[in-house]
Write a structure and sequence with these properties.
268 residues, 2 domains, 86% helix
Length: 268
């Protein structure tokens, strides 16, 4: 009897663990994939920025060194050597490494910012009237978080969803192609699998994440109002989301070949 009475508690504990840890982790993994896509492009943008700043530094240092050393009567060969050393102080490899580290730091920070509404807010479902009421409160009591968080979740989640579906399609095709099945049949099965995966991720992952983000931002705004947070501080709630997570998510969104992926999944 003791073993029978313990079974429901074991199942209840397993269900609670799934609901509190594994399910949010699965939802969050889609956002991580999307943010990683944005981070890859951010790496390139940072490298271009560092190269531009390095060129400015090279020009300024060359001008200053030439002016000062010529005024001191230094030999032209020595002046050229000093200018060359100043220009080569930061080389291409160092700029690439700085860009990678910068993109990684931004990506991890964005991961942390978007993890808060996923792991520390339980989405309990929204009815249509509740959703309309929350949408109305966005404009009645606007905060940065209410605008930035849902957009960041949507952009990162959409980029992640398309990346996941494309990987599933490629993996399925590679597995089927080695089994000797006709190429057209293999393409059809792989495309269908990828399309089904995309539809499931959008409906079962991205949609709940979006609604959960809206709920989370609205709850934070109501908590700030209840605790008498100053108006200016309440309005600026979500600065880290707006200036870190949102740009990376938008980069991921614009870097995602949505039309090309859809055509590939529909076997067009």
């Amino acid at each position: 009897m003791a073993e029978e009475t313990n079974k429901p508690s074991v199942f209840a504990s397993a269900g609670a663990f799934f609901g509190r840890v594994l399910l949010p982790l699965g939802l969050f993994s889609v956002l991580v994939v999307g943010l990683h896509v944005g981070s890859d492009r951010l790496d390139d943008h940072l490298f271009e920025l560092f190269s531009f700043l390095d060129n400015l530094f090279d020009s300024a240092s060359s001008f200053l060194l030439r002016t000062v050393l010529d005024a001191l009567g230094v030999d032209p060969k020595t002046t050229a050597l000093w200018i060359y050393r100043a220009i080569e102080w930061i080389d291409v490899d160092q700029k690439a490494e700085l860009a990678r580290v910068g993109a990684l730091v931004v990506e991890l920070t964005a991961d942390f910012v978007l993890a808060l509404p996923v792991f520390f807010h339980k989405y309990e479902g929204l009815k249509l009237l509740e959703l309309r009421e929350q949408a109305r409160r966005i404009f009645l009591d606007p905060t940065l978080l209410k605008f930035a968080l849902p957009v960041a979740i949507f952009a990162a989640g959409l980029g992640g969803a398309f990346s996941v579906s494309r990987e599933i399609q490629v993996w399925t095709h590679s597995r089927i192609a080695h089994s000797g099945i006709d190429a057209d049949v293999a393409n059809f099965i792989a495309s269908s699998t990828g399309f089904i995966a995309l539809a499931l991720v959008l409906w079962r992952v991205l949609f709940p994440l979006m609604l959960g983000a809206i709920e989370y931002a609205d709850r934070r705004a109501r908590n700030d109002l209840a605790t008498a947070i100053p108006l200016r501080k309440r309005r600026l709630r979500g600065l880290s989301t707006a200036f870190l997570a949102l740009p990376v998510a938008l980069i991921a969104f614009f870097a995602t070949p949505i039309a090309g992926t859809v055509r590939a999944l529909l076997w067009l």
